[in-house]
Task: structure prediction
Amino acid sequence: MSISAAVTALRPTIERLAEFAALNPNWDSYGGLPASPRAVSSATELLVLLADHLPDLDPERLVPFAVAPIADGGVQLEWRRQRHDLEVEIAPGGELGYLLIERLGDRREFREESNVPAQEVLRLLGTVLVRDPAE
Amino acid sequence: VTPRNEGLEQIADDDLLYRRLAPLHVNPDGTANSAAFKLRGYPDPQVSVDLARLTTPEATLARAPRAGFGLGALVAGDPRSLGLSVRHNPLPNNRAQALIEGQRPDDKQSARRLAEMTRILVLPRRE
Result:
């Protein structure tokens, strides 16, 4: 797979992220502010790094299940697979955090971290997207 | 806004709570996204909801700045089962307002669980 194929697959997500910075104040009806430019650029950079990190993966598997703004400046990306869900939060200042959910039979294990480097998120995404089949 | 002290309602575990959902906070599969329960990248310590028996779905949706919002419902006992509190917090312009309080920044799974506990009553219009 080429990087350009991956970026093409991710383009709708990247365009959506850019729209989050242009949301009107009170976009969520509870007084929320739009996503900060820093959060949007960090999320976009993470997606580009992801494409570079997993060059052999089907580009469609890189595409998040959901992407959403977080009130007062943040952004969230979420991937879902058969055994794992991974929510990645980007705070207004660009800091990354995550919640990893692993399904083990009829129970779930939760693991979370805040203020982690992008490399740690990429490593987790590598595990989730490469080893775990789509839902 | 300072809430009025008089007329506080006790909220029972089986009371319904309404939460407006921006179109961007409903997943492609029609479920609520946990981002709806977060603030600045962390779980929101004070989630605003409406006590259903003091309002209607239409009235709660009418407080949105524009049409197209969705409406989710939670049973008050569900957030309480996560260790969160639910209390009435009437405002001069919204007597139904209540708060789900107690989400901690280091407990991201509470926002996820709140989203999973949310039943979608009205789907938002896709933007």
